[in-house]
């Protein structure tokens, strides 16, 4: 019988502990598949902070280190400069990268550091109870905005990819999603390109990936996907925002 499916070597043979309907499991698999395809697993080092990404070392079958909330870009900078032959990526959520880690990501991008960032945006603080994040969209209800986010008191949702695309040091910035087969394939293409750009020494790259958080959104998995398509993507449109070396 022809084998049509197998676990990527980049993932350990253990069950995920993410909530039902969470997008992180899709992103983990995509990253592992790209690493396998590029045959770089023995050279990869992943970096994860506090948050839903914190258990990455339990799932990825390569070196992963945990660092303080918001600090993966600083750790990635140090690792890449000391070991330039390694392939370094950070795996960060919106509560991490877009809040406490804002300065870290902006200045790493501005320096054009040659590492890759995978930024999972689910518009909420997932692990700590569903509080408002910088990416929470206007009107979205969270545990700290039970009547919906208000611009007057909380400002606008932060569009990280648009911001980073304006910085000269960035080489590749894209936003994708895990809501459909088509967008899963687009995510895999973007992840692979971001890693290739690092391998080729082209500088800083980031892939923002929109993912559902049914538990903290108070929705079923199907409702969460529908909400992503109707609400999130209107605020965070998909596509490549910058490709310095592409057509």
Write up this protein.
The protein is an alpha/beta fold. The chain has a single domain (24-243), classed as Thiamin diphosphate (ThDP)-binding fold, Pyr/PP domains (Rossmann fold). Helices cover 38% and strands 17% of the residues. It has helices spanning 24-38, 56-59, 72-82, 94-100, 102-111, 151-154, 160-165, 181-199, 214-217, 221-235, and strands at 44-48, 63-66, 87-93, 116-121, 170-177, 204-210, 239-243. A seven-stranded mixed beta sheet has the order 2-1-3-4-6-5-7, sandwiched between helices. Helix 2 links the parallel strand 1 and strand 2. Helix 4 packs across helix 5 (102-111). The longest helix has 19 residues, at 181-199. The mean pLDDT is 94.
Structural class: alpha/beta
Total count of helical runs of at least 4 residues: 10
Write down how many β-strands occur, each being a DSSP E stretch of 2 or more residues. Answer: 7
Largest sheet descriptor: 7 strands, mixed
Provide the low-confidence segments as ranges: none
Multimeric status of the protein: single chain
What is this entry, summarized?
The chain is α/β, with parallel strands linked by helices and 247 residues long. It contains ten helices and seven strands. It is 38% helix and 17% strand.
